[in-house]
Design brief:
alpha/beta; eight-stranded mixed sheet; 36% helix; globular
Length: 565
């Protein structure tokens, strides 16, 4: 589909142009691509306020405005009757994105699997409710009633197992009688992906109150996951139901050449494609005003977690409360008083649209981004670890060596991503876009504490969603543009994971000048202009690892070690 022909809006003619928009919660970002002898090229970009909320309540208004701006920028005629007249793709997280309620039997097993499934389909999990979550039945019902989800995912039990807990959750749903976010009289789509033995009972309980869809169990047995059928069902229902109900989307679908994707699902797509093509692990963090999303792509698969109430405007005070003032102050220079820092954070929470007006205020926002990002990264790794530890009871039965250790402990690589294998870390969001090269390098380094040799970059204009949906129809071009046009490298981090304080950790040699230097454990060295470098990792190991790096980007040599972090 390299020519993107066959669009219902261009009568099947090949135009050489492709329009892609990402309809965000506040901003609609439009990107125009044009085919040349070299392939697709970025031709123009334009932003416009998203108009899914009042007073417009029609997503097309913002898209038309962005399209008009693109026409002014490029001098091209891209519309007919206000809507795109060239092949068109779009992603969306408007109105809060695909907001989902998730149900599972236990918080550490099926609840986490259901969360993982919902996030993998591009959903924003409003809340996960389980039998063992510590809430009374009436409290669960109150949450169910007040959240107004777009969709519900109900999981629980292995095939052939007990059904009472699943039926109990279904009964709670009937009693709570939740209403959707849009069109309150419509039934909420509900995907049941639990114990097959419970299907008849769940159907009897829920078919009159919900738009019920039954798919294969996400946990058919203790040692097997089967997430894909439920993920596909969520995406199909997102298109057929949620998009139909959201203001303006039902008409917008007639102009697209492919399904509308949830923005997070598009980001997962491009990150998974990147990791698959490179055989490497990549991580992306999107730091917003209210939430922080983290995506990790390893082996072609991508995982996403959402840290709710972790952001640099609306959620600033929540980050302060969870991390503590001492943790925030640790990432700030001397001279700033704790009182002034606390006052700015509280003021920004009350006035989230205010921008920093001084260097100290900018650094406070960086410190909040670091503290919140660290918490989000820990949660992301623990989610991967829990997914990796599922089936614990089955492994206890089958394991013949060192059962206790293999069951209750895991090495760092059992997070599902080997931390030392991460080759690329990407930052996105307003705080990253305005931090500058050295600010972005510092923020990403302090959040992730990368190991080995890692490239850090930013997606300044957040075009990853655009290239993510492009990857579904033209993966090679999407990957090329992702690397060449989307990512802006800010520097490298070179960091041995095992060091001893005050002892040699790394030997550095500049191959151009021949100058050698030694970096001790606990030290940090910045090479602002990079160079043609040779690193010898020594530490307390008998063997010596030798690595080479040639770059004109800043190189941060970080020998603080990672064991203690």
């Amino acid at each position: 589909m390299d020519d993107y022909s066959g669009s219902s809006v261009d009568g099947g003619r090949t135009t050489g142009l492709l329009l892609i928009t990402d309809v965000g919660s506040t901003t609609t970002k439009a990107l125009l691509l044009k085919r040349s002898d070299r392939g697709l090229e970025f031709t123009g970009m334009a932003d416009s306020p998203t108009t899914v909320e009042r007073p417009h309540e029609d997503v097309k208004v913002g898209i038309v405005d962005a399209l008009r701006k693109l026409e002014e920028i490029t001098g091209l005629n891209l519309s007919r009757g206000g809507m795109p007249s060239v092949p068109y793709l779009t992603t969306s997280s408007a109105g809060g994105g695909l907001q989902m309620l998730v149900f599972g039997l236990t918080s550490v097993e099926t609840g986490k699997i259901a969360e993982h499934t919902a996030c993998g389909a591009g959903g924003v999990v409003l809340r996960t409710i389980t039998i063992d979550d510590g809430l009374k039945a009436v409290e669960k019902m109150m949450y169910i009633q007040k959240l107004h989800p777009d969709m519900i995912l109900l999981a629980g039990g292995t095939d052939g197992g007990a059904i009472a807990g699943v039926v109990r959750l279904a009964e709670l749903l009937i009693l709570a009688d939740p209403e959707p976010k849009f069109r309150q009289n419509d039934k909420i789509p509900l995907v049941f992906c639990g114990n097959t033995e419970a299907r008849s009972f769940v159907t009897e309980a829920l078919r009159d109150g919900f738009d019920l869809h039954i798919v294969d169990n996400v946990r058919p047995s203790l040692d097997r996951l089967n997430i894909e059928p439920a993920r596909q069902a969520v995406h199909r229902l997102f298109m057929d139901n949620v998009m139909e109900r959201a203001p303006g989307y039902s008409e917008l679908k007639d102009f697209t050449i492919s399904d509308i994707l949830p923005t997070p699902a598009a980001v997962e797509s491009i990150l998974g494609s990147y990791s698959r093509s490179k055989g490497e692990t990549a991580v992306m963090i999107d730091i917003g005003g209210a939430t922080t999303d983290i995506f990790s792509g390893a082996g072609g698969d991508a995982t996403r977690t959402v840290a709710a109430n972790t952001g640099v405007s609306y959620s600033m005070s929540n980050v302060l409360a969870e991390a503590g003032l001492d943790e925030v102050m640790r990432h700030l220079p001397d001279g700033l008083s704790p009182g002034a820092v606390r006052d700015y954070i509280c003021n920004k929470t009350l006035n989230p649209t205010l921008l920093p007006t001084s260097e100290s205020e900018r650094l406070i926002e960086h410190a909040i981004a670091i503290a919140g990002g660290r918490s989000a990264w820990r949660d992301h790794l623990m989610t991967r670890a829990r997914m990796n530890k599922l089936g614990m009871l089955q492994r206890m039965k089958e394991d013949t060596t060192d059962r206790f250790t293999s069951t209750f402990f895991w090495k760092r690589e059992n997070y599902g991503v080997d931390l030392s294998s991460i080759s690329l870390i990407i930052g996105a969001g307003g705080v990253m876009s305005h931090a500058g090269r050295m600010g972005s390098l510092r923020i990403l380094t302090e959040i992730f504490l990368p190991e080995g040799i890692t490239l850090l970059a930013i997606d300044k204009h957040f075009r990853s969603p655009h290239l993510g949906i492009l990857s579904t129809i033209d993966e090679p071009e999407a990957l090329r543009l992702f690397e060449e046009e989307c990512l802006q490298p800010v520097g490298y981090v070179v960091a041995p994971s095992e060091v001893t304080s005050e002892k040699p950790a790394l030997e550095l040699r500049n191959l151009n000048s021949g100058v050698k230097s030694e970096v001790k454990g606990g030290d940090v060295l910045l090479l602002e202009s990079g160079g043609r470098l040779e690193f010898r990792f020594t530490g307390d190991r008998e063997d010596v690892e030798i690595h080479h790096l040639t770059t004109d980007l800043p190189v941060l040599i970080d020998c603080r070690g990672r064991d203690q972090e």
